[in-house]
Amino acid sequence: MRKIVSKHGVKPLSEAITMLKVVILAMCFETDITFVISELKAKASLREFTGVHDVPDAKEVYRLLSRFTVDQFVDMVLRIVNAVCGKRKRGKTIIIGDTTNLTVDLNWFRKKYKREDLKDKDYKWAYSRSKGYYIGMKLVLAIEYPSLKPLAFLV
Fold first, then answer.
1. DSSP code at position 17
2. Would you write out the chain's pLDDT as a tens digit for each of its 155 residues?
3. What is the Cα–Cα distance from 35 to 46, expressed in whole angstroms?
4. How many CB atoms within 10 Å of residue 56?
5. Three-state SS for 87?
6. Domain coordinates of the chain in residue numbers?
7. Which residues are within 8 A (CB) of 74 and not within 5 positions of it... i.e. 6 or more apart?
8. pTM of the model
9. Furthest-apart CA pair in the chain: how many Å?
10. How far apart are CA 19 and CA 50, in angstroms?
11. CA–CA distance, 91 with 110 (Å, rounded to integer)
12. Contact between residue 118 and residue 135 where contact means Cβ atoms under 8 Å apart
């Protein structure tokens, strides 16, 4: 993971890895980054399980994310998942997880966005039963059964 993150020129490396753990946790559990940070600060057992001992501020995490384009971020996380999980063995069952909403932080109450405005963007208008309408993307997670190792995700 250190090699993959360092190839993207992110420094300091240990803090960046901690922040990426927070982001990936938020993505996988369809929660806000601020919620993940508050849970990590409140629960020592969760910090121990995730290996996040120095919990970053949300502002620092968002500052790190702003350094990447969508393609750079997806490429980096896919490389991390592939490095951690290794090759898939034949005959294993793959579970395709439910799609998760990735909301883009736009103030769409102040400026009204139409479908035509988002035509050339990586994000679109979408609808979720749990959140209603939002501007963003979808995340699909594939995991291997019975080990529950993540295999890939698509944005």
1. H
2. 778 777 777 777 778 888 888 888 888 777 888 898 999 999 999 888 888 888 999 898 888 888 888 888 888 887 877 776 666 566 677 777 666 666 666 655 666 666 666 666 666 666 676 667 766 777 777 777 777 777 776 66
3. 13
4. 19
5. coil
6. 1-86, 88-155
7. 155
8. 0.54
9. 52
10. 12
11. 52
12. yes
